[in-house]
């Protein structure tokens, strides 16, 4: 724990203030900024009917935080219903998926994912490590 972080530092650097990131006809996408040292980012979708999401080859962890239920459908046709408060994972291999609101009120869904720069840096670290492996090593 870092006890030097208090007062204005907490309000400025550690409390997320939602920012409208994108919007469409009946949906909004908000970014809930995380601290620069956090490896993950949080978005909140708010939609009335349905929204199509591309995961850009990243795993998404989602939670239905407002609304009764929604239907998840992948581009391969897999369908699954999720209810209020449930958390679910959409694998990176899924690609594009659709969330359909099954209510008459707005659905709100939180989405957590690894920040792009963290993915790039971990991939570069892996490539660098792989380049220095000794194939004759007994530790393989």
Description:
This protein has 140 residues and is an alpha+beta fold. 16% of the residues lie in helices and 43% in strands. The protein has 2 helices and 10 strands, in the order H-E-E-E-E-E-E-E-E-E-E-H. The protein has helices at residues 8-13, 116-131, and strands at 19-23, 27-32, 40-47, 50-54, 60-66, 69-74, 79-83, 87-90, 96-101, 107-114. The strands form 2 sheets. It has a 6-stranded antiparallel β-sheet. Strands 4-9-6-7 form a 4-stranded antiparallel β-sheet, with no helix packed on it. A hairpin with a 3-residue loop joins strand 1 (19-23) and strand 2 (27-32).
The shape, in one word, is globular
Task: Round the mean pLDDT to the nearest integer and report it.
Answer: 83
**How many beta strands in the DSSP annotation?**
10
- Please state the structural category: alpha+beta
Strand content: 35-45%
Q: Gyration radius, to the nearest Å?
A: 19 Å
Question: Tell me about the biggest sheet?
Answer: 6 strands, antiparallel
């Amino acid at each position: 724990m870092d006890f030097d972080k208090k007062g204005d530092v907490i309000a400025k650097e550690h409390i997320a203030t939602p920012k409208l990131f994108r919007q469409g006809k009946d949906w909004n996408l908000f970014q809930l900024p995380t601290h620069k040292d956090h490896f993950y980012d949080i978005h909140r979708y708010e939609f009335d009917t349905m929204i199509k999401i591309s995961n850009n080859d990243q795993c998404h962890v989602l939670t239905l935080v407002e609304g009764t239920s929604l239907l998840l459908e992948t581009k391969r046709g897999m369908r699954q219903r999720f209810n209020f408060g449930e958390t679910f994972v959409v694998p990176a291999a899924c690609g594009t998926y659709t969330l359909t609101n099954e209510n008459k009120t707005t659905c709100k869904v939180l989405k957590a994912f690894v920040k792009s720069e963290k993915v790039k840096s971990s991939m570069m670290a892996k490539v660098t490590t792989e380049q220095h492996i000794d194939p004759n090593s007994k530790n393989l």
